[in-house]
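Late entry, evening session. Most of the bench is empty. Finally got around to the prediction I had been postponing all week. Sequence below, unchanged from the version circulated by S.P.
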Amino acid sequence: MLAAERGAATNTLSAYRRDLEGADEVVGDLLAAARDDLGRLTGAWADLAPSTVARKASALRQFYGFCVDEGLRDDDPSSALPRPQARRPLPKILSHADIERLFTCVEDEAASDRPAAVRMLALLELLYGSGLRASELVALPVSAVPRDAPLLTITGKGGQQRMVPVSRRAQAALARWMTVRAGDGSAFLFPSRKGHISRIRLFQLVKALAARAELDPAKVSPHVLRHAFATHLLEGGADLRVLQTLLGHADIATTQIYTHVDSARLVALVNERHPLAAKGAGR
């Protein structure tokens, strides 16, 4: 149902499978489980983060909702599951100076025209310049490279397509990459021996670049660069609905997290730079 009706991605399907199989190990046959059986999960999940518990409970609620809809059960025992208050954490962000250090490093390396360095420049331009998800970026086909219109057609979560702009910088980086790319006829823009580079490999490449740029690798990842794209656009006056479209968020509430990031930045700015801040600190 998740695959056919909702168009859930492979990673989503795998996550649901892991959560349901983990619950099955605790309570036994999920299809026959009663409310008291599901109540045991509260203790089994006691050491997990609230967000993790919320995700696991959501998977089970959807499973039992499906069972009732399909006539596999007459009742829904999921009311016995815990309902933790999971606060959405503020995303990690990079400063403009951090981004500048990353680009300075990768541009210096790409000056040699080594394929690996030119590829890294193209990857960074698309992560920060277009806000792509890691899974979207690594799976880009060669046919997605813009020719006339400076736009990429992206297939995101749930198979939903959207158009994202490609800056002149990114277009130039992609053009350089296409001249040195050795794909042996691969349909993927960033090929590997098994198809396209993996999300894990992209993660490793970004971490290694951060280290070479003398940034803390723990604070830099493909998703952090996507957060930086969103936060810096919002700082520059971008409309929240436009940002939602660019990021491919189904719900505007997901995009609104960046307004909290911007607000937190403004509060910190006032506390650190306002003339009265120094007077208050000296009392």
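Two things to note before I forget:
The first helix runs from residue 10 to 27.
The two ends are 63 Å apart (CA to CA).
Will write this up properly tomorrow.
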